[in-house]
Protein 1
Amino acid sequence: MDSLMALLTIFVILFFISKKYRSYLDIPTLDEYIKDNPHCFTGNGIKCFNCGSKSIRNWGQYGPNSSYRVHICNHCGLHLYRS
């Protein structure tokens, strides 16, 4: 019974990790973002297609040291692109 509970716990943890990774892959890359929103590439950086803000935070998907980065608009909170 204990081994079944351990196996179930591992399965649940792996399920949530894979779900979070799949949600990361749903966010466009920078190249895809610029291709879809060419007016958002300003020569001085990138701006939000929703509100036009140039204030974009670089957020780790799995914590501050994560190599999976999501770029989020500071003004409207929209997930813009990943890197």
Note: Residues 2-26 form the longest helix (25 residues).
Protein 2
Amino acid sequence: MFFVDLYRMKQYLLIILVALSLNAYADSLLSVESSYIVSTEMNKGEGDVISLYPNPAKNSFFIEVNNTKSEVKEINLYSLLGTSVLVIRNNFSKDKIEVNISSLKKGKYLVKVSFADGTSEVKALIKQ
């Protein structure tokens, strides 16, 4: 019986270590991206279809679609552990979409914008 519990403890410890290492890896990715903050245009680069601003955000942020041919189908927000924390499925007819994040905890998130043509783009977001 002691060996069974020890085996389970090793499994739980391994899961925790993997989760912590993924979190550290995601933090390092976001810290690299956040070093490029200039004004409110974080994550804006050549060829990007979307822009997020303001970033960091408090209660809401905007997604601006830079390519008028791209129709937004769905917006997903994920925690750094990959848990979906917000899903928005609407008929997005505007090039500028406001997303309310007042219910989310402070921290780092990943915003995935999916388009009608099957493509998607992911950006980092910091919630203050």
Note: The longest helix spans residues 2-34.
Protein 3
Amino acid sequence: MKTESDSRLFISLLGISFGLLLFFAFMLTYISNISYVLLIIVGIIVFLGLITIAGLSFTLKRAKPILKFEKPIIWMLNRLYPIVLSIGGIMQIDKDRIRASFIFLHNRLTRLKHIKAKPEEVLLLLPHCIQDADCKFKVTTDVENCHRCGGCLINNLLELKDKYGFKMEVATGGTIARRKIEDFNPRVVIAVACERDLASGISDVENINVLGITNKRPFGPCYNTTVDLNEIENVLKHVL
């Protein structure tokens, strides 16, 4: 079971990123005699960053969002994600660990908003690799093409769909996933994907509540993947 500690990696790297930014700005100003205006601007950015980190830590500790600040915090997290990922790469930290930490942190902040939606306002977005690769009845255009043979999890997920009444779509990639979100315009998206695609998608989507669930890859990436059905159902119960 994931805990608060899963978010600490991303928050720590966020602090290191702001520290490095301030250090390099100071050195550049000192060495090249550039106007101190640059240092002041960077100092303001770092100050806002430290407020963000403090707000994140405080929010996670009290398990309650700071009113009117959750959206700016999530917005800033999405913008800083590529920078934190790069800094972590330079430090030779596994990128999937950083992505997983970002996803956990984003999920935690989203869940703290206690969002409630109607079934038709919830979209379960799945990767195409969750379907049996040998199945000839492809569900990327219509999930109802599934013949419910039980050869993969699509059948089980359709049973959840029948039970709760949410919308369900299968996407072949990030561009198609974003298009489906735009077409359906849901209030809540429950997205299933690998750490890379999930973190990238979460950081790109604005004004929609996204809860991410990482898939399981027993046969390697992008091939006959699976997902924890109990985790999906728990998220559904939280938002419905």
Note: Strands lie at 122-127, 167-171, 188-193, 209-214.
